[in-house]
Amino acid sequence: MLTSFVDGIFCCFTGKSTNVVVPIESSEPTDGFEFVEVKPGRVLRVRHIIPDRPVVEEPGTGEGGTVSCKRKISVYRNGQLLIENVNEATHPELVRYQNGDSTVDTDVSNCEAPPAAQASEHTPGSATAGQAMDSKPAPQQNLQQVQRRRRKPKCSIVIDCERKITCCKGTHPDVALFFIHGVGGSLDIWGSQLDYFSQLGYEVIAPDLAGHGASSAPQIPAAYTFYALAEDVRIIFKRYAKKRNILVGHSYGVSFCTFLAHEYPEQVHKVVMINGGGPTALEPSLCSVFNLPTCVLNFLSPCLTWSFLMAGFAHQGMREKKLLKENNAFNVSSFVLRSMMSGQYWPEGDEVYHAEITVPVLLVHGMYDKFVLVQEDQRMAEILLLGFLKIIDDGSHMVMMECPDLVNTLLHEFFLWQPYPSPVIETVIKKKRWSKIKSLICFCLTFLDITY
Fold first, then answer.
1. Nearest 5°: CA angle at 435, between 433 and 438?
2. Which of 241, 252, 125, 128 is nearest to 180 (CA)?
3. Which residues does the annotation mark as catalytic?
4. pLDDT above 60 (res 433)
5. What is the pLDDT of residue 316?
6. pLDDT score at 299
7. Do residues 80 and 104 lie in contact, with contact meaning Cβ atoms separated by under 8 Å?
8. Residue 428: CB partners within 8 Å, gap ≥ 6?
9. Which domains does the chain show, CATH number per domain?
10. Which of 94-98, 345-349, 406-410, 435-439 has the lowest mean pLDDT?
11. What's the whole-model pTM score?
């Protein structure tokens, strides 16, 4: 702590930060580590593991299941969001939709298609956005009153696509796993996951964000904005992407996974969000300790590290302190930390942006997380079309470090999951063409074992 105070005094006199993160000499073997120059002078360390595996033929066209992703998203002038999951039926009816604590009555007779079975795919115990609260036709005396209350949406977006979902086995050479850490972390926090999945035959890629781990640390705040970091992640993704890619993000890293899933829906196969928060647009807080000058943050560095230990882990013992030290977590300079927090500006990442994502998403939340509330991940599960929420009772914000075996098993089951409908159900569905009922039954039957 004395060193931190001395560094703070030096910073105040010189105006420069003393604990600047620069590429470090790693004690680990160089095998699997690469340095990628995403921009001139901007170098990221990437751990890239290609396991030895036999060549396996491409999966046949008959494997996997097809999920109908058809929904209409309407935004009203009062900020209300209405999501309609529509099917092939054409019968107009009056439906009441729920959005948070408020409801909207709307006549869907003029819509392209009415809501689907009044529920999209969701896990038991987690409501889905756009779920119909009342699918029965309203009485005639109430019809005129509801029609008078009908409001024209500010804008509407229609999504109509068919997504084929297949399992991602590690023996297939067309599968790649990307792991993106959050603020103050490094690729080392994924140590258990990288070793586990590479041993199973998966190709894994995990970068250090700028200013973190062994990546270069530019000394300008603009280098740490959301858009600058997102462009770095995009370059890494395009460099290592395969035919089927799975993104795993933690905390702030979830936003970059969402960005890639939205930009590359055909290449991103599945997404895992670990303690990522709700589907809200990012905006830096004006009243935050990270807005203090860098020299002051140098003084407070030991307190910030202690606070992160207390809030990031369910238990604060020698094991957790050892995990922090060995995995290089929360070991960044005050300048980088301040620039990262003030650069979290992403107005496009609102609920509509997340509702447009059509890839399957697994949300993992540690029950004792003090940075992200469980209600935020629940809201995310409601907004996402194919969202599944799993709560780990013994975990906190750094759940992948606290409960590595449980998280690895959970992720692996999600990677291997695919909607296999039974032959009897498939025959009935083909005859009656109930695509949304097909999706609902398949998700409930095949994913029940890893969801609530």
1. 110
2. 252
3. 251, 369, 397
4. no
5. 79
6. 67
7. yes
8. 434
9. 165-431 (3.40.50.1820)
10. 94-98
11. 0.74
